[in-house]
Amino acid sequence: MRLFLHELRYQQLIFWRSTEAAFFIFLFPLLLFLLLGSVYSGHIYGVPASWALLAGLLGYGCANTAFAGLAIQLVVRRELGILKRLRATPLSAATYIAAMLVSTLIVFVLQTIALFILGRILYGTPFPHAWGSLVLAVVFGAAVFAGLGVATASLIRSAEGSSAVVNFILLPMAFLTGSFGPTRHYPKVLRWIGDVLPLKYFIDIVNAVYLHRQAIWTKGTALGVLAAWGATGLAVAALKFRWEPREG
Predict the structure, then answer these.
(1) pLDDT tens digits, residue range 166-209?
(2) Model pTM?
(3) What does DSSP say about strands 47-48 and 43-44: parallel, antiparallel, or unpaired?
(4) Does the residue 151 lie in any domain?
(5) Furthest-apart CA pair in the chain: how many Å?
(6) Domain membership flag for residue 222
(7) Total domain count, the chain
(8) Alpha-carbon gap, residue 114 to 195, rounded angstroms
(9) What is the pLDDT of residues 60-113, one digit of tens each?
(10) 43, β-bridge pairs
(11) Torsions phi, psi for 76 (to 5 deg)
């Protein structure tokens, strides 16, 4: 436990001392909420637009933090030889991965709190009614996207290409699944693509919990689809993840 807490503290220090990580992973969803909230008006999904945008950006924040951020970090550290050197230390692989995952969860939880505070101050959005279900949704979503992030890192060959590959996946997924606004006017083929992506089901859960005050277990299908995506990510990671650099 002592090693885990030490490594967790180290992971947090690395994250917050990196200007790029702090901005693009933590602050960028807040900036998007500020910009989109000033553009959208009226109602979305039967609720004020700012409420729906907040729910959608919680989904984007989860994917951006747990999927994109984690994948890029792992690829860069692997190609720099950091992961390989860690294997020669008393720190076990399980402790290191656990510390990274918990650090990622902490960042997303803080981001979620910041989104609710920002929404309340600027747009009068309400705080969640079903706090317990929201906490479970946040933890579950972060775990699923973290698994997908590790799997994606396992397939990316170079540190130079990691950001491009991850954002090539993340940004279209966010647009197609409703993170930045409703998709009902999209061409049918784009809606079909969005319907198979994991972020859609996480946003469905957040919408149900936050916008409609439903318990998380009322979205059994969405939970099952997300669990299947997470299991697939873990399976790929178990088969393909490497601690040694893949280039050079």
Answers:
(1) 999 999 999 999 999 888 889 999 999 999 999 999 999 999 99
(2) 0.93
(3) antiparallel
(4) yes
(5) 58
(6) yes
(7) 1
(8) 29
(9) 999 999 999 999 999 999 999 999 998 888 888 889 999 999 999 999 999 999
(10) 48
(11) -60, -45
